[in-house]
Amino acid sequence: MTDDIKMTYLKTIFQFKNLINTEFGRGKQHVLSLTDLLILQGIQAGKSSVEIATDLRITKAAVSQCTTALAKKGLITRTTDPENRRNLTLALTDEGVAQLNSTDAEFDQAFSGFVDEMGETELRQMLKLMDKMSTIIGE
User: What Rg value do the Cα atoms of the chain yield, rounded?
Assistant: First the structure.
């Protein structure tokens, strides 16, 4: 392996890390991280915290930490199941729905420009390779 490929790989991973840390909703009451956005979308889709963790390939503890913060911001509610205290029901508040809708619109606009510039075929190829890389690294 050449040092050139290794350095390009490391720089690319670093740049993607910076993209992942992008915040959405600047100028709104609550700024959302990409993780927050994906968790809110999962909650809106009716997924449990375990399903969200599985989908995002993160720990249940990470989802719990994020949902606690989202609840403190008033974007979601976390209700304990009275029959099984280990289960939490997650739901968006009205404010959470409004924040998610405006953030989704903001993201859709940015994503549309990205797809226009990159092209759908190349984007699909890149996503396939990124998924493969993620699987390899995660093993």
Answer: 18
Rounded distance, CA 139 to CA 137, Å? 6
Do 67 and 79 touch, CB atoms closer than 8 A?
no
Rounded-to-integer distance, Cα 101 and Cα 98, Å = 5
Contacts of 56 (CB under 8 A, 6+ apart): 35, 38, 39, 42, 63
Distance CA 4, CA 7 (A): 5
User: Chain-wide mean pLDDT for the chain?
Assistant: 86
Element housing 14 (H / E): helix 3-20
pLDDT at residue 28, as a whole number: 54
